[in-house]
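Request from the bench team (R.T.):
"We need a structural guess for the complex before ordering more coenzyme A. Sequence and SMILES attached. Just send the tokens back."

Command: build protein-coenzyme A structure.
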Amino acid sequence: MEVKFHNIDQVDDSLLKYAVIVSRYKGKWIFCKNKTRKWELPGGTREEGEPILNTAKRELYEETGAKEYDIKPICAYSINSYGLLFFAEIKELGDLPDSEIEKIDFFDDIPDELSFPLYHPKHFDKVRFMFEKNIHKELITQRLKLRLLNKNDRELIFKLRSDLNVIQHTGIKQYTNIDEADPYIKKIEQGMEDFSCLMWTINISSINSPIGTLCFWNFSSDKKRAEIGYDLLPEYWGQGYALEAIKAALPFGFLQCGFNCILAYPVEENLASCRVLEKAGFNLIEKKSCKEVNEDCIICKYKINKG
Ligand SMILES: CC(C)(COP(=O)(O)OP(=O)(O)OC[C@H]1O[C@@H](n2cnc3c(N)ncnc32)[C@H](O)[C@@H]1OP(=O)(O)O)[C@@H](O)C(=O)NCCC(=O)NCCS
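Reply to R.T.: structure attached below.
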């Protein structure tokens, strides 16, 4: 059974039967140990006539003892029936009321022993990704600022994707009109909502216009593996900017997004890209021919694991 996520306005309120709450307290994620099961997220069934927000608040209190908190709905989800997923930032915890919960604990990551291993990792990842993305809108390095792509970046996207030097090794179709950037940015923005990709623009701190992009994309279905991609306007090549940006993105991918490994697939001729990956700590796993690109094309598979 698959967990599917939906925008809140796509699901009629009367269909929402459950509330699940991913919550934080003092920088840690809260999980509850059920007396007869394992670790789980607070949550439960909506009572007759109960507003769904009240279900979430009631369950949060009953299962964690939360007394003061900010809570907000994130999205609807469906497994067999529909529920609403919430995020709560807990400010004050009281005693744990008498319930089916034996104890709560505080985690940096999702615990291994879960009551619902098919569902709760999906709920958790969805909220964690949203949370981290909102908190870490920018990644700062010595010379660079990486900030999330938005619709104002159409000129950058057009400059990159219309430049044959930039796209020659990537299989990207050359843009000829700046309007082509808009649907692309829209797709990326939607992907950032759905936890299926993340893209930053790369900016030199002292200059006000972006010089390239860096992204995580092609996530595995369990969200534990992602591909990294990057490009820079040619006038900024050879100054170590790509390496500096990748080095900032990797810990974000491992710690904040929860990836176990990150992959990259440059073509063999893309010496700059292969070199940058190696300098960033990626290992060459294999080379294979890629006839879909052309007869002689060799693709290199690079990988880096969470250290
Ligand atoms: C790949 C790319 C992002 C690298 O950016 P960059 O900022 O120039 O990279 P860096 O300066 O950090 O490092 C480049 C390294 O590759 C080396 N390099 C560059 N061109 C090279 C070449 N033709 N042959 C051998 N090494 C080369 C550089 O010498 C440098 O290594 P060094 O620091 O040991 O000297 C940039 O070339 C680019 O945007 N290319 C087009 C898009 C692209 O191909 N993206 C990757 C798709 S997989």
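Two things stood out. The helical segments are 52-64, 120-135, 154-161, 164-167, 181-193, 241-256, 271-279. The chain is about 25% helix and 35% strand.
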